[in-house]
Amino acid sequence: MAPSFDCAASILLCAEDNSSVLGFDDDVDGEEDGRGFGWVSGVKSPHFYGDFLVDFPVLSDERLGSLVERETEHMPREDYAERLRSGALDLAIRRDAIDWIWKVHAHYSFGPLTAYLAVNYLDRFLSGYELPQGKAWMTQLLSVACLSLAAKMEETEVPLSLDLQVGDAKYVFEAKTIQRMELLVLSTLKWRMQAVTPFSYLDFFLHKFNGGSAPSKILASRSVELILSMTRGTDLLVFRPSEVAAAIALSALRETQVVEVEKALSCCIHVVQEGVLRCFEVIQDLMAVRSRPRKIAIPSVSSLPQSPIGVLDAACLSYNSDDTTAGSHATCGGDSPASKRRKLSSSSIS
Length: 350
Known about the structure:
The protein has 13 helices and no strands.
């Protein structure tokens, strides 16, 4: 059984009364405004990620092998996806947290890796700890902490934790409250914050599957967009980051040219080809479902905030789960991801 939040809270050694989780009073959780937001499919991405991979040097085969050996240290527990699908873990908690993360990510025009890291931290945390039932404020507090940590790892300009609480936030937390939650997340993740992600491998596989040639910016942007569009669903949680990256690269290439999948994978000695093939098939199924005409009414795009990552179809994002709603997130003025410098590290290893 996963440890409880009350048990983990003791590591923070807070002076406040610990009668509630992390020492917060249950009846003073924050200010709730009752507003929500959703996602909508069919919205074109306002961002272009073609320059994102420029900051990642192409990996050598040896470096690739080193990353593959360590990538499981930066994944959720093996049973996490199944527990979400079976109802053992509340899928709505994850969905609501990611929805909020995406909206704030778009508001500040954070880079793709910041968004992915925030969701990675969230999944790894939720796979090890169960949030108490009926405490929606704690879900948002966890979301703020994960995004704040990801921004500190990845962005050169990081908003204050108080300023992160935008996007129709239902609750508003003090900086010290967020900091304590950050410490709990850090401890739970064993301070392994420079996670190995699909982005760590993406440029390698795009080069490899493209005959050794550098991928076009359009291909790179499409690959990044595909990775981000899959984060809200649970289908890819069972696959390693290297398998996801290889499958995404193949999927993006296949949209514009003929690709012999098994032949392309034969030159990759460090990844499990069977895992890549299974992941590739899942992605193809998700993309096929997404491309089907929808029979439900879709609100006007002009009346809803746009998504930072383009088409976010609910069927694509939650293919094997009961999470079938879709919507969009707000974008905000500011520099595009390509125009902001990132603190990118080729090692991506803690």
